Amino acid sequence: MEDFKYRNYYVLRVTGGQEINVALILEERIKTNNINEIFSVVVPPNIKGYVILEATGPHVVKLISSGIRHVKGVAHGLIQKEDVTKFVSKSVALPAVKEGDLVEVISGPFRGMQAQVVRVESTKNEVVLNILESSYPVQVTVPLEQVKPVKR
Predict the structure, then answer these.
(1) Which residues pair with 40 in a beta bridge?
(2) In angstroms, rounded to a whole number, what is the distance separating the alpha carbons of residues 116 and 150?
(3) I want to staple 39 with a disulfide (CB 3.0 to 4.6 A). Which of 54, 61, 79, 83 is the partner?
């Protein structure tokens, strides 16, 4: 297998909602035609109507995508690798809580209840809470994204 120096990211415009179907067809064409100039096919999860191909040149992208029903064409220009990683990486802003903080549970079976943070397990993204609205002390472990800070 040849080692290609230049890997560029090209954007295919496709019919909205057909991104996964187009990606599967592209994958099948790449395998059956033994094309080694395309390195990856990316379907950005939050962007409708686009499929990103990592390839050596635009001629390869046009060759492999020609004749596919839902492909509208190749977008002009290239896209940077940093932009592609931004599209596909999962970045969730977790609330900053520490022991002793008052929080409100925003989802799950304890939704709407006030609680006090007993312990934060940052490796698991979980928090141990003491529910304040119960008649006896109840400690529960919930995911960190299910709480919202109220007071410190």
Answers:
(1) 54
(2) 10
(3) 54
In this structure, which topology does domain 102-151 adopt according to CATH? Answer: SH3 type barrels. (2.30.30)
> Which CATH fold topology does 8-88 show?
Alpha-Beta Plaits (3.30.70)
Helices (H), the chain: 19-32, 58-65, 81-88
Residues in Cβ contact with 151 at an 8 Å cutoff, skipping those fewer than 6 apart: 101, 102
Calpha distance 152→136 (Å, rounded): 23
Q: Which long-range contacts (CB under 8 A, 24 or more apart) does 43-46 make?
A: 43/19, 44/87, 44/88, 45/87, 45/88, 46/87
Q: In percent, how much of the chain has pLDDT > 90?
A: 62
Q: What is the pLDDT of residue 58?
A: 93
- Signed CA dihedral, 22, 24, 30, 32: sign only: negative
Q: Does residue 95 surpass a pLDDT of 80?
A: no
